């Protein structure tokens, strides 16, 4: 039999070098930062990608070598993700996020924020009234081990000590980081539970407010209400705002799941998810700030007036940043 | 760029053992259809289990390191290590997945071992926001049921927890309830997990040298179609002697040939001839899918 010259064989002989080169470049690209590609290499990748795609089309049409077709498919897919999946540098993305992305995302869910804050406030008012009317209601909201002695049976002196005691500077960093991670998990849970059509998030917001209201009732009955609020609000403004935003993001997801509007449910969910992810990334930053304030500021600053001043300034800062910051720039253009 | 759940037309259907219901069409801007294969539920589950093992091992290792380091220093500096431990735990729990999915390969070590990667469902960019969203939802799918699983309570409390576990089962087993094997995180982020194995280009079998001595009877190459050719290629690449003997015997019986050439040589020569025949027919526009198709 004369030696067989298949067209597919000749086709492969011509193009194999280009495929090998693309494969080598993709291997280096996928290693990430550790192996930087030269300018020539980066410029060559899209060209080689198109060559690989055309080879794939030709191979599907004229070749019956399954290994070859499978190889070209995987090569083209990898090259596709390389060419069409590249992103801007992390630094640019971060500044864009801080300046525009985050405030705009928070503004976009302002209705859900109001609803979330409303449930939290409702929980606080309900708990306040209930505990004020009967001290046993306190234990319905806060289990005994969480209260750490700050319950209706404690004396005024004990409660006052809890508000103004300074433990000194040791242990604060640990306390701070522990609080940050604990609060972040709660915020993430509030967001994730929004998927279950919002109802668990309603409960979480209500419960958060109820915790606050119950404690406030205990302190107010001993005449320490104002000092207690100062103690809480120094970091509480930031932390409660962050948890409210997390709940609002959860509400948005759940609401979109139930009522997707004009888009298909999958598309609407994907859009809402991207928006809420920006909000949640910001929530983590807020909780980090709250953790620092709680860990350091609360123990080191003992004057109630100063605590209120810090609380008011953080509130003003966040409100201005979220709801006013972009608008002036837009007006100027 | 359009993605559709297209069952590929028969002429272009792949001939490997991929389940056709897991194929998704991704048409690039250049107009070529990259047939993505979605990861099956079991592949995703095993990738996740591998990741959990890695995370737990890292946590144990980090804890031992921190404990050893804190033992060396006075408490003042030891607190510093406690802070590090808390932060390491937090970072591992929340950012392990996200950090790896932000790399160009878009796969955690567990996924890399299983040969999977994350891709955006509409074929576009995989944004950091999407990756963040899909990983935060894991709170609902993994950590919440886990907390119910390990909590303990008596009578009514226990029943409430069991009911809560059943409720969570909807979220945990969500991938089994939809065709695209999407987790809730995938739903919210607009992504899916596809297979991305690294294929190696092996040499063309038809390049191998064979002797000229085998004379096939007329019509020998009309016996089989493309599907059988693919199987024959697989047999020749694996080079498993009992399989080759069985296949060679079958082919000889079908084309009515009795000769005493070694199996591998016979199969190689038959492969070359069959492929030449089928490819030349293909160039004229006729694809014979398998031996039952019209020749």
Describe the structure concisely.
With 333 residues, chain A is an all-alpha fold. Chain A has helices at residues 7-30, 39-62, 66-84, 90-108, 110-133, 137-141, 144-147, 156-164, 172-193, 199-221, 225-258, 265-300, 304-323, 325-332. Mean pLDDT of chain B is 83; it is low at 1-15.
Describe this entry's structure for a reader.
- The complex is a heterodimer of chains A (333) and B (295).
- Chain A has 333 residues and is mostly helical.
- Chain A contains 14 helices and no strands.
- Chain A has helices at residues 7-30, 39-62, 66-84, 90-108, 110-133, 137-141, 144-147, 156-164, 172-193, 199-221, 225-258, 265-300, 304-323, 325-332.
- Chain A is elongated.
- Chain B is mainly α and 295 residues long.
- Helices cover 54% and strands 8% of the residues of chain B.
- In chain B, the strands form two sheets. In chain B, strands 1-2-3 form a three-stranded antiparallel sheet, with no helix packed on it. Chain B has a two-stranded antiparallel ribbon with strand order 4-5.
- In chain B, a hairpin with a 5-residue loop joins strand 2 (23-27) and strand 3 (33-37).
- Chain B is elongated and about 85 Å long.
- Chain B starts with a strand and ends in a 12-residue tail after the last helix.
- Mean pLDDT of chain B is 83; it is low at 1-15.
- Classes of the chains: A mainly alpha (333), B mainly alpha (295).
